[in-house]
């Protein structure tokens, strides 16, 4: 069946369901699912599907500068594309499309970008995609994404905003998914191995991924570090303004 035929089928089903409600009982509540499938509408009216939009966003994110000022993709273009992708993967179905569309590998690759803002957006997008989603949590672990995120979250030279989103991604991946939590604990640097934020080295005791308090505890040291970095960055930005006030 062609995409146009599928779209017409969806439209026909929708019209019958809604017409039958009002015909049989004008006072009846509308059916629970009155909306048309987004991909069916796209096929019917010729617009891009959400899968197409996800691929297009990743194409912009991965675009290289070819030296042509007419075709150069700017950092702002990439950030807008990432923002669009992050909003798309808020949908469970779209998050699951990351694997089918072969987008996981390039997405994880951006965690190693030279641009801090791209690293931040990649971590944010990952965190959104894996939240409460066993299938995407599994993919993240299988593709080695946890150690990469830990490297960002614990990186002393990383901007606080990057570290914050990396912690968000790790927290989303680890909650209620034991393999991700085990991978996180295995990758955690020695300085962060105290469950309450201490400096104990060695193996951590087992932590249950369904115990939210215990999961929070193993992130406390990383969170304290990024918050300190955030405060230091804010103080550094405020210093010139304070100096100007004293000389005026």
From TrEMBL:
InterPro entries: ARM-like, ARM-type_fold, Hsp70_NEF-Inhibitors, Nucleotide_exch_fac_Fes1
One GO CC annotation: cytosol
Keywords assigned by UniProt, alphabetized: Repeat
Domain of life: Eukaryota
GO biological-process terms attached to the record: cytoplasm protein quality control by the ubiquitin-proteasome system
SUPFAM superfamilies: ARM repeat (SSF48371)
GO MF annotation list: adenyl-nucleotide exchange factor activity
Domain Nucleotide exchange factor Fes1: 8-98
Its job: Functions as a nucleotide exchange factor (NEF) for Hsp70 chaperones which accelerates the release of ADP. Required for fully efficient Hsp70-mediated folding of proteins.
Family: Belongs to the FES1 family.
Protein name: Hsp70 nucleotide exchange factor
Organism: Niveomyces insectorum RCEF 264
